[in-house]
């Protein structure tokens, strides 16, 4: 009987370890951001910016917004693409944008521009 009890405890421990490990992995997966590839063309970035902003609020990159600067297409598109990526669950496929974006694990925030 004692042996069976140890087996049950060991099994429950493995199940608990699985759930804890899964939670840690899920938390680590959420620490990603979507950014525009610097090599992406302006035409593609404009399309990405327009599409992302048609799906999520892009007020933060409008003139006077906290993420307006630097005032360039790569920066604004990256912020918009990340907003879209975050709003849709941070799945890799939500950062594809016709192969003009990258999922990164380093926080791209700078100055007053905080990526979520």
Question: Which helices and strands occur, and which strands form pairs?
Answer:
Elements: H1 2-29, E1 33-36, H2 42-55, H3 73-87, E2 101-104
Antiparallel strand pairs: 1-2
Domain X8: 32-115
Signal peptide: 1-22
Organism: Zea mays (Maize)
Number of domains: 2
Shape: globular
Number of strands: 2
- End-to-end distance: 53 Å
Indicate the low-confidence ranges by residue numbers. 6-25
Strand order of the largest sheet: 1-2
H-E string:
HEHHE
Average pLDDT score: 80
- Class derived from helix and strand content: mainly alpha
Biggest sheet features:
2 strands, antiparallel
Approximate strand percentage: 5-15%
Based on CA atoms alone, the radius of gyration comes out at 20 Å
Helicity level: 40-55%
Query: Helix count, per DSSP?
Result: 3
Organism: Zea mays (Maize)
InterPro entries: X8, X8_dom_prot
GO cellular component, one term: plasmodesma
Protein name: X8 domain-containing protein
Describe the structure.
It contains 3 helices and 2 strands. About 17% of the residues have low confidence. It has 116 residues and is mainly α. The termini are far apart. The chain folds into 2 domains: 30 residues; 85 residues, no CATH class. Strands 1-2 form a two-stranded antiparallel sheet. The chain is globular.
